[in-house]
Amino acid sequence: MAVIVSGEFYKALATLVLIVHILFIVWVVLGALLTRSRPVLQVLHIASLIWGVVTELFVRCPLTLVENWLEQRAGIQPYQGGFLLHYLDKLVYPELPASVLTAVAVIVCLFNLAYYARVMRSEHHSG
Question: Mean pLDDT, consecutive 10-residue segments, the chain of 127 residues?
């Protein structure tokens, strides 16, 4: 028995992945605000920051790959390149070189990591 899935179903799934992707990026950028006095969340946020740097510099994000695959199944031409470059270039910073957007994303992650290093150093010296 074959199950036929419509393009609208794939489009809805692609939209869901897009929302998850946006929420993950918000978590990466602003997660330090939610992790105070929560060691488990701090570890998860630090891991997310490292993952953010890795996906910006070395590998394609799996969420981007899934979103592109679902869009293709829905009959939509998937975008090329990374998620941040596609959406930020289209919506916020048109005509800005991709290298600048990538550098800003990495700097935001590194700034967050530096914050954690400072907090951990301060806790180590006070404890």
Answer: 76 94 94 90 96 92 94 90 73 74 90 91 73
Angle at 100 between CA 96 and CA 106, to 5 degrees: 140
Residue (of 14, 15, 5, 36) closest to 122 by Cα position: 36
* DSSP calls for 28-46: HHHGGGT-TT-HHHHHHHH
Specify the pLDDT at position 121: 84
Q: Can you read off the two tokens belonging to residue 10?
A: 């794939």
Q: Is residue 1 part of a domain?
A: no
Gap between the Cα atoms of 47 and 112, Å rounded? 11
Domain with 27 in it: 7-126
The tally of domains found in the chain comes to: 1
d(CA 9, CA 72): 12
> What's the predicted TM-score (pTM) here?
0.82
Looking at the domain assignment, is residue 54 inside a domain?
yes
Give the Cβ contact number of residue 84 at 10 Å.
20
64 occurs within a structural domain: yes
The answer to whether position 2 is within a domain reads no
